[in-house]
Amino acid sequence: MSDTPIRTRIAPSPTGIAHVGTLYIALFNYAFAKQHGGQFIVRIEDTDRNRFVEGAEEVIFEALEWAGIVPDESVVHGGEYGPYRQSERLETYQQYVEQLIEQGDAYYCFCTSERLADMRAAQQAAKQPPKYDRHCLHTYSLEEARQKVAAGEQYVVRLRVPEGKSQWTDMIRGDVEIDHAQIDDQVLLKSDGFPTYHMAVVVDDHLMGITHVMRGEEWISSTPKHLILYEKLGFPVPQYAHMPLLRNTDKSKLSKRKNDVSIVSYRDKGYLPQALLNFLMLLGWSHPDNKEFPISLEEFVRVFDMDRMQKTGPVFDVEKLNWMNGKYLREVLSQTEVAERVQQYLPENYPVENIPLYLPLVLDRMGTLLDFADLTDFFYQDTAIDTDQLLKKGATPELVVQQLQETATALEALPEWKHETIETAVRALQELHTWKKGQYFMMLRLAATGRKATPPLFETIHAIGKERVLGRFADCIETLR
Ligand code: GLU
């Protein structure tokens, strides 16, 4: 082992939302760097000006901060290897492109989009793979090409892909070999003076001292282009680890059509960052003790091991995330902490003073912080009660009216409004009249809450409050009479 410090990075493009796939890759890069006492860098790859979205960069950093994945170096965090935004490094790329041209490893191409389209159509018709036919390489000497450039002609610069093979030992996939015959003469510098991803990624990973490139498997087919560039530029090659692609439950690539993929929207829906991270850790990796929960970020940094990564696409199953989040709410956070956190997820008119009263009743059923408002709305809001529902299990309107009246009188007379006293009074009435328990209790639940499924009946009646419960009973009586 050399003493080179381990440096990893993510290189998101600011083209829209901050994607959970980015957080997934960030998590593993972060853990690997931290485990080795190294640095984790965030570089913004904004060279594709057509896909650039204003504000997208800010959202990436907001999302990472929420998740607690703190970069050592970035546009926001600074660092010695900046600028960390590719659009600010154009001259650097141009220098290296020039070097490649001088060496004969890259060449100018003046082909119009029409010519390229015709060429592709012909290749398609002949069932050949789409590849640039090297027309400009064969037509112009370097001197002629430079004259055309000087005369102001539009051009791109292409990599001259050498014959042979690229081979590397991927930390997740083992030995990978790709024949260059499959590889197009990739554009390195576009006509707008911006580098393509392939050129910029190699130059930046090198200049920023990146030792391990851990990225999504969708980049495997690009890696040979990068390896050629490393060789031609004389840069040492980093280690590669191509991470399995996250999938929808139907095994297709995780997409926003089938899943919510925005990190910030998971925050807004009331997921805890530590639960989302724990969930992401287990996509493609398993804990050495097969532990699933709770695994903190600190523990992950300690126990993460690349050898425990699997190659096949892990499924992003929101049900599992809900389960995980619920477990964090119940078993990791205290009720006081949950009570504090739910406050950001409540409608305006919510009686916040009642949170401690409601929370123990619904915590078991909460998957997210946002669930709290939905599960407790009937405690304090007017709720529609379908009185037909009260007449189940053979109960007549007369019986139900009598039950409601007697229950109301008994509750009204309680010296103390506690779930224990409510329970004693209700059970005494049931025994006195030998009412059927199933019918009577379900009827009470419906009359008090408008719902069939609620937290335990007496605690619920208690939490709704005497006045509101008696009001609901009175309304039911009136409708049934
Ligand atoms: N900009 C690329 C992306 O958006 C980075 C790929 C890489 O990590 O090399 O995913």
Folded structure, characterized:
- This protein has helices at 20-35, 56-67, 90-103, 113-125, 135-139, 142-150, 197-207, 223-233, 263-268, 273-281, 297-303, 318-332, 335-342, 355-362, 371-380, 397-412, 419-433, 437-449, 457-464, 466-480, and strands spanning 7-10, 39-42, 106-109, 156-159, 165-170, 174-179, 187-189, 212-216, 239-243.
- The protein has 481 residues and is mainly alpha-helical.
- Among the domains are: 264-367, Glutamyl-trna Synthetase, Domain 2 (Glutamyl-tRNA Synthetase, domain 2), CATH 1.10.1160; 387-480, Arc Repressor Mutant, subunit A.
- The strands form four sheets. It has a three-stranded antiparallel beta sheet with strand order 3-4-7. The chain has a two-stranded parallel ribbon with strand order 1-2.
- Strand 1 (7-10), helix 1 and strand 2 form a beta-alpha-beta unit.
- Helix 7 packs across helix 8.
- The model has no long low-confidence stretch (mean pLDDT 96).
- It binds glutamic acid.
In CATH terms, what is the architecture of the domain at 264-367?
Orthogonal Bundle
| CATH fold assignment of the domain at 264-367 | Glutamyl-tRNA Synthetase, domain 2
Extract low-pLDDT stretches: none
Percent range for β-strand residues: 5-15%
Task: Name the ligand types.
Answer: glutamic acid
Largest sheet: 3 strands, antiparallel
Number of helices: 20
Cα(first) to Cα(last) distance is 86 Å
Shape: elongated
Question: How much helicity do the residues have?
Answer: 40-55%
Strand order of the largest sheet: 3-4-7
User: What is the level 1 CATH name of the domain at 264-367?
Assistant: Mainly Alpha
The structural class is: mainly alpha
Give the radius of gyration. Answer: 32 Å
Indicate the mean pLDDT: 96
Give the strand tally.
Answer: 9
